[in-house]
Amino acid sequence: MNLDFSSMPQYTQLFINGIIMTIELTLISVAIGAVLGLIVALMKMSSVKVISFIGSAYVEIIRGTPLLVQILIIYNGLPQFGIKFPGFVVGIIALSMNSAGYVAEIIRSGIQAVDPGQMEASRSLGMSHSMAMRYVIIPQAIKNILPALGNEFIVMLKESSIVSVIGFADLTRQAEIVSSVTYRAFEPLIIIAAIYFIMTLVFSRLLSKFERRLRSGDTR
Amino acid sequence: MIRVDNLHKNFGNLEVLKGVSLEVKKGEVLVIIGPSGSGKSTILRCINLLEEPTKGDIYIEGEKINDKKADINKIRQKVGMVFQHFNLFPNMTAIDNITLAPVKVKKMDKKDAEDIAIKLLKKVGLEDKRDSYPVKLSGGQKQRLAIARALAMQPDVMLFDEPTSALDPEMVKEVLNVMKELANEGMTMIVVTHEMGFAREVADRVIFVDDGVIVEEGTPKEVFENPKNPRTREFFSKIL
C-alpha cells in the first residue's frame, strides 16, 4: 500500500473551511430542527385528532425514509415545481426537517416522562393546560430533553456529510475536492474521518460533562 | 355548596361510579370511606373535573361545572386538591411551590403572594423550610406543603384524596393535625381516607362507598357504631 500525505498540508485551509461549514450547518440545522421539533411534538400530543395525525405522519415519514432521498427530493424534485434554492439552503432545509422528526420524538418522550401528577396538580390549582405546560411541565422536561438533544447534535454532525452529494462545501465535500486535484483518493478520506472522529469525541465528552453538571445541580 | 347528582363514570367498559348523589354544605367535613377500587377517589376527581363524568351533574355553589360553558379553570381555583402522592413541583423551592399559582393564575403581586405563602408555611409548621426543595422534605412535610400550596389559592372547599396513604405511620399524625385545624376553622372539606380515627373525630358526615354506589351515609356515630348495611359491617370487620 502506498500512502502519501505529503501533498496534504497545502490544503489545510480547505479542510478548516470544511470543518467550519460542517459545524455551522449542524448547529443551524439542529437549532431549527429543535424549534420545528417542538412544534411537531406539541402537534403530535394535541387532543385535536387532525393535528395530532399530521404531527405523527410527519415523524413517521421523516424517520421512515432515508435522509439522502429527502435531500435529493428537496434538491432535484422541488425545482420541477419552480422552487429552487441554493445548495446551502437546501442542506439546511433538509437537515432541519430531518432533525425535527427525531427531535419531536425526543421532546415528546421528555414531556411524557414528567409525572402526570404534575399536570393534575397544576390544573387543580386553576392553571390552564398551556400554563401548566409552560411553567411546570416543560421546565422539568428540559432536563430529560437536553442530553438527548446533545446526542442528536453529535449524530447530525456525522450525518451532515451527506449534503456533500449536492455540492454543499462541507468537510466531506472538501475531501472530494482535494482528492480530485491531488489524484489521491485515500488520504483525504482518512484525514476527514479522523477529523469527524475527533469532533464527535470532543463533543460527546463535553456533553457528558454537561450532563453530569445537570444532574449534580438537580436538587430534586 | 357542592351537590352531586346521579354521577356515573365509566373507564372504557368498566363502570366505576353507578349513580352517586351527595351534598356538602358550607363548613361541613364529609369523609368518604370504602374498600380500594370502590370509586371513592373517582368521586373526588370528578368534583374538580380531573375526570369527566360520564353521566350526571355536579354543582358548585349553584353552578353546574360539567357544562360545556363552565370555565373550569375558574372553578378549580375555588376547589383545592391534595393528592396521595403530593405532586409537589420538584424543581421549585417550598415557597415557589406555593406562590406559583397565585402569581400566574390570579396575577397576584409576587411580594403579596410571598407574604401569604409565609403565613401558610407557618400554619403548617414549615416556616424554616421556605427555601428547601421537596426532595429534602419528609413525606409528612411534603404533604403539609401540598396543603399549604392548595390553600394559597384561597379555595372555598378542599378535596383530600387519601392524603396519608403514602406516608410512613409516624408522619400520619402531623398531616391529620393540619387537616383537623383546617376543619376547626370552618373549611368545607371532602376527605377520602382510610384513617377511621380521623373520620370519627373530625367528620360531620361519613359515607361508605362500595362498588360505585353509596351504601351507607350518616354521622360518624351512626355509621361506625351502628352500621345498617351488611357490606359496611363486613368492611369494618376487616379493617378495625
TrEMBL record, chain A:
It comes from the Bacteria. InterPro entries: AA_ABC_transptr_permease_3TM, ArtM/GltK/GlnP/TcyL/YhdX-like, MetI-like, MetI-like_sf. GO terms for cellular component: ATP-binding cassette (ABC) transporter complex. It is found in: Cell membrane. Belongs to the binding-protein-dependent transport system permease family. HisMQ subfamily. This is Arginine ABC transporter permease. Keywords: Amino-acid transport, Cell membrane, Membrane, Transmembrane, Transmembrane helix, Transport. It is a multi-pass membrane protein. NCBIfam families: HEQRo_perm_3TM (TIGR01726).
